[in-house]
Specification:
Chain A: Belongs to the ABC transporter superfamily. Chain A: It is a peripheral membrane protein. The complex is a heterodimer of chains A (about 550) and B (about 270). With about 550 residues, chain A is α/β, with parallel strands linked by helices. Chain A is built from 22 helices and 20 strands. By secondary structure, chain B is mainly α. Chain B starts with a helix and ends with a helix. In chain B, helix 4 runs parallel beside helix 7 and helix 9 packs parallel to helix 10. The chains are: A alpha/beta (about 550), B mainly alpha (about 270). Chains A and B meet through helix 14 of A and helix 8 and helix 9 of B.
Chain lengths: ~550, ~270
């Protein structure tokens, strides 16, 4: 067993909160052989990133390695000096972060940042050789124009390309180990597949070992040889990928696996004569004159149904929501609420118009005023729209907290900062419900949440819909979410609707080519999905 | 202010708070504490320290200590009123500019830019010459000049809050402008504004003193630290440090306020070390 590259034993990492220390990583053991890819999965706060950074002998500010050992290729990282560890980093161990845009220096060309580690820091080769390697790697990463792309600055290339450029940069010194920390989480599915392919090819070609951190099971299934599941800093279980996917042992892992199986029951289709709650009719909207962001958009939202609006970033789905709320009056087309025309601008809508259409936001952090208590956040719309006061108001707030499954006595006087991400999103839902609306616009409400938490939110939304007859416009880029909750689907690309219809029809062929690309790009929970998809592409 | 928070405060902040408190007490109870009247001539001119007059007498034979104590009331009171006025104008305009945006923002911002472009002291001298010297005029002029800084700060921090989803949520709910500002924006920018209040107060204080020193501010015989320096400046040439006492009073107060402001900023920014 002398081919073991990284051996972590009983690692404990602590973080500081004020003057006390709490445990982030609690006694983790980890072994990685040369050329092997280990997938680390878990919710946020499970200690994945902290563990990943520890594999480089690094601990973030405010954290400390409290015990255990980290052995990299025969060297104990913890007994090295900081200079000794720095000599390993970049040269033998590299790191690829989640947000490539935030990690590149916008004032330097990509290729100059590529050569920085091998030439200036480690002095392994001269600049010309290093630039040649850069171009070769750009080519292997399937970047367009590999000779020229290095001369660009980070803002001149797309997110997916930048993520590949960063992976190339991590490979610049041909390290033995790369740590990938959620490298595709911020990308669209169609872009993600390109990045995944490129990463996998390069890692295999150079026989590089990797730790791949993600919360997306389907992604890790494509990349990793083995999977380790973490929960609150402790290991839940570890097994080879096929084994883990086929037969997870622990309850927690099973629950993770089951998340994707949530499906809403098909509902009877609305009759021809039913008046939709909201009708969007031939709407065109633009921020600058002559540059429409949404063009000729039409769809209906019927009583008690969920319309999912799907598309990549930049497809105009959030702009559609802005038009519906009146923040961006359309230049053409109109909106109907219960068959009556809705004034295009927010300023001209009555209180009742505003009450009927509510909104839930993607980032619960910025959607709730940090200085207001839950009582105030939920209470204000009740006061404002329904005019309830005193005891009645208090009762209504408590009812709503019950409805979103948060214990009123515990939570009513808390501030948003005292809640978890999922709880904050529930408060966002309660605030929308407080107005007693008929239609709620949900703008990517689950995309910032962990899968288990997101599933809880989806189930809650579903239950509320059944109970209160709500209609949802559900904006998302995640097709798994669409399958879980949608009744009708609208697929958007570049501001136009490419296909729409009931969910049952949309997930059956024939598809519009774009819908097809979207559907095929969603990673499936099978280890050879990526390989098969790529084969299909080549055949086509 | 919570006791628990105060307990964790650094020593400098506590020292600052104690000194500010002493100034406040002296200012409020000046009539009871001062051994002599504010404008009462009690002895010869420029008497030495010690003896009947602890800190000697000034150029007209008034008790220096008493005038210093009364000065705390006049100088600090006027500076406080001016700062409050500057803050009322500056923060309201800044909030309006940030929330409404568009041409309101353009108009207010360019107007403020224009005021800032003119050297403050010269502008103040000019305005006071036009409108005449007097306490009310001076408060008005300094407030308008200091308002520009408050405006810029308020606008900048409010801009960051205006784009938050919770402000949009309030707008979509149909809340009025005033409610948006008061309930959603103001609580989230209060901390930097409070800190700025302390800093501004120091600058206002210095401006009042400067104008008084030049003879355009608080008029005799009212006791005021700025004009007290001027009136007794001649003593310096004889190696007597008495004229420096009011100057020292100004300096100690400004430093104390800065200690406290540093601490408030530190807490507000959430920095740990």
């Amino acid at each position: 067993m002398d081919d073991i590259l990284l051996k972590i034993q009983d690692l404990r990492i602590e973080g500081r909160q004020g003057k006390t220390w709490f445990t982030i990583v609690d006694g983790i053991n980890l072994e990685l052989r040369k050329g092997e890819v280990l997938g680390l999965i878990g919710e946020s706060g499970a200690g994945k990133s902290t563990l990943g950074l520890a594999a480089m002998g690094y601990s973030r500010d405010g954290t400390r390695i409290a015990g255990g050992s980290i052995n990299f290729d025969g060297t104990d990282l913890l007994s090295l000096t900081e200079a000794g560890r720095r000599d390993l980093r970049g040269r033998r161990i590299a790191y690829v972060a989640q947000s490539a845009a935030a990690c590149f220096n916008p004032a330097h060309r990509l290729i100059d940042q590529f050569t920085e580690a091998p030439v200036q820091i480690h002095g392994l080769e001269d600049k010309a050789t290093s630039e040649k390697h850069a171009r070769e790697l750009y080519d292997q990463m399937h970047l367009p124009d590999p000779d020229g792309i290095g001369l660009r600055y980070s803002h001149q290339v797309s997110g997916g390309q930048l993520q590949r450029a960063m992976t190339a940069m991590a490979m610049s010194c041909k390290p033995d180990l790369i740590i990938f920390d959620e490298p595709t989480t911020a990308l669209d599915v169609t872009t993600q597949i390109e990045v995944l392919t490129a990463i996998r090819e390069v890692v295999r070609k150079f026989n590089t070992a990797a730790i791949y951190i993600t919360h997306d099971l389907a992604v890790v299934a494509q990349m990793a040889d083995r999977i380790k599941v973490l929960l609150q800093g402790q290991e839940v279980e570890e097994a080879p990928t096929e084994e883990m996917l086929a037969a997870p042992k622990e309850d927690y892992t099973k629950s993770l696996w089951a998340v994707r199986s949530f499906r809403s029951e098909p509902k009877p289709k609305p009759g021809q004569d039913d008046v939709p709650v909201v009708r969007v009719e031939n709407v065109t909207a633009e921020y600058r004159p002559g540059e429409p962001v949404v063009k000729d958009l039409s769809f209906d939202i019927h009583h008690g149904r969920t319309v999912a609006v799907v598309g990549e970033s930049g497809s105009g789905k959030s702009t559609a929501a802005k038009v519906m709320t009146g923040l961006l009056p359309p230049v053409e087309g109109r909106l109907l609420l219960d068959g009556n025309e809705l004034p295009p601008s927010l300023a001209n809508r009555t209180k009742d118009h505003l009450r009927e259409v509510q909104m839930i936001y993607q980032m619960a952090d910025t959607a709730l005023n940090p200085k207001q208590t839950i009582r105030r956040i939920i209470g204000r719309p009740i006061q404002f729209y329904l005019g309830l006061q005193g005891k009645q108001l208090e009762e209504r707030i408590r009812d709503l907290l019950d409805a979103i499954e948060l214990e009123p006595d515990t939570y009513i006087d808390r501030l948003p900062s005292e809640l978890s991400g999922g709880q904050k999103q529930r408060i966002g839902i309660a605030r929308a419900l407080a107005a007693e609306p008929r239609c709620i616009i949900c703008d990517e409400v689950t995309s910032a949440l962990d899968q288990l938490v997101a599933e809880g939110i989806l189930r809650l939304l579903k239950r509320l819909q059944d109970k209160r007859g709500l209609s949802y416009m559900f904006i998302t880029h995640d097709l798994a979410t669409v399958q879980a909750i949608a009744d009708d689907v609208v697929v958007m690309q570049k501001g136009r609707v490419v296909e729409q219809g009931p969910k049952e029809d949309m997930f059956q062929p024939p598809h519009h080519p774009y819908t097809d690309t979207l559907l095929r790009s969603v990673p499936q929970m099978e280890p050879d999905w990526l390989t098969r998809t790529l084969q299909k592409r080549e055949e086509a | 202010m919570k006791i628990g928070v105060l307990k964790d405060a650094p020593k400098t902040a506590i020292l600052g708070l104690v000194i500010i408190l002493i100034y406040a007490v002296l200012g409020i109870f000046a009539g009871q504490i001062a051994p002599h009247g504010e404008t009462e001539i009690v002895g010869m001119e420029f008497e030495q320290w010690g003896g009947e007059f602890l800190l000697g007498t000034d150029n007209l034979g008034r008790d220096m200590l008493s005038r210093l104590i009364y000065g705390a009331r006049n100088s600090v009171g006027i500076a406080l009123a001016t700062t409050a006025l500057a803050f009322s104008i500056g923060s309201v305009l800044g909030l309006l500019a940030a929330t409404l945006g568009g041409w309101v923002d353009q108009f207010l911002s360019r107007f403020v830019d224009m005021l800032i472009a003119i050297p403050a002291l010269l502008f103040a001298l000019l305005l006071l010459t036009i409108f005449g010297t007097g306490i009310v005029n001076m408060i008005g002029v300094i407030a308008v000049l200091e308002m520009t800084r408050v405006f810029r700060l308020t606008r900048a921090v409010a801009m960051n809050v205006v784009v938050m989803d919770y402000v949009q949520a309030a707008r979509l709910r149909g809340e009025g402008l005033w409610w948006q500002i008061r309930a959603e924006i103001l609580p989230n920018i209060a901390a930097p504004l409070v800190a700025e209040f302390g800093l501004r107060f120091c600058f206002v204080f210095l401006a009042v003193s400067a104008l008084s020193f030049l003879g355009l501010g608080i008029q005799p015989p009212t006791a005021d630290w700025g004009s007290m320096v001027r009136a007794n400046a001649a003593l310096i040439t004889f190696g007597d440090i008495t004229p420096l006492l009011p100057a020292a009073a100004i300096a100690v107060l400004t430093i104390s306020i800065n200690f406290v402001v540093d601490w408030v900023l530190h807490c507000a920014s959430g920095l740990k070390d």
